[in-house]
Amino acid sequence: MIDLYTWTTPNGRKVSIMLEELGVDYTVHAVNIGQDEQKSPEFLAISPNNKIPAIVDRETGLKLMESGAIMIYLADKFGKFMPKEAEARAKTIEWLMWQMGGLGPMLGQAHHFLHFNPGKAEYAEDRFGTETRRLYRVLDKQLEGKDYIVGDYSIADMACWPWISRYEWQQIDLSDFPNVKAWYQRLLARPAVQKGYHVPKKMGEIPTGD
């Protein structure tokens, strides 16, 4: 049994989507970051960086923070969504790290300046808007002729998709990135993606990509 501590953010949805895809039992603990619940001593004992998501594996007692680390751990524990062959595994981790180090942080900044605080910092809006479009081009090129980012459906796809699902916040028209759009809608059709998106609670309908 896995205890998942999460909220309605792209990083949180990465792990809930993966747990739904794995089909394993897990218990959801909502951590309302809007009310600073991530700063409670109880949560800090699990996630010292006071960020969601985090998990506790009841079988082993392992406490784990950082969504990328959690996804690699779950893939290895359950033997799914991570290639076993060394080169394919390395490429999958490469694109997971691309999401962790680039796509997530840069799109997060785009959300801050373009969606929540428009008109307050022209330089920041231009900087992060430009970088967001560049990252979309990188992903669009990677998806050329492919159904998934690296070979079969993997943790790389699950990590990137929730960030792309906020394309409207990023002022992105998915039609400008046809490979990303087709991939986005391909994943959206998966029941586990739909269910995992609405953990720990439903926050409106999932954008369709149209």
Question: Could you characterize the architecture of this molecule?
Answer:
It is a single chain. The radius of gyration is 17 Å and the shape is globular. It has 2 domains: 77 residues, Glutaredoxin (3-Layer(aba) Sandwich), CATH 3.40.30.10; 104 residues, Glutathione S-transferase Yfyf (Class Pi), Chain A, domain 2 (Up-down Bundle). It has a 4-stranded mixed β-sheet with strand order 2-1-3-4, with helices on one face. It has 210 residues and is an alpha+beta fold. α1 packs parallel to α3. The N and C termini lie far apart (37 Å).
Gist of the model:
This protein has 210 residues and is of the alpha+beta class. It has helices spanning 10-22, 41-44, 67-78, 86-116, 122-142, 155-164, 178-188, 191-197; strands at residues 2-6, 26-30, 54-57, 63-65.
Give the SSE layout.
Blueprint: E1 2-6, H1 10-22, E2 26-30, H2 41-44, E3 54-57, E4 63-65, H3 67-78, H4 86-116, H5 122-142, H6 155-164, H7 178-188, H8 191-197
Parallel strand pairs: 1-2
Antiparallel strand pairs: 1-3, 3-4
Helix pairs in contact: 1-3, 1-6, 1-8, 4-5, 4-6
In whole angstroms, the N-to-C terminal distance is: 37 Å
User: CATH top level of the largest domain?
Assistant: Mainly Alpha
Tell me how many strands there are.
4
Please state the CA-atom Rg, rounded to the nearest Å: 17 Å
CATH fold category name of the largest domain: Glutathione S-transferase Yfyf (Class Pi), Chain A, domain 2
Strand order of the largest sheet: 2-1-3-4
Strand fraction band?
5-15%
Under the CATH scheme, which architecture of the largest domain would be assigned? Up-down Bundle
Helix content: 40-55%
Sheet/helix structural class: alpha+beta
Q: List SSEs in N-to-C order.
A: EHEHEEHHHHHH
Mean pLDDT: 97
Instruction: Kindly give the count of domains.
Output: 2
| Low-pLDDT ranges | none
State the major sheet.
4 strands, mixed
What coarse outline follows from CA principal-axis ratios?
Answer: globular
How many helices? 8
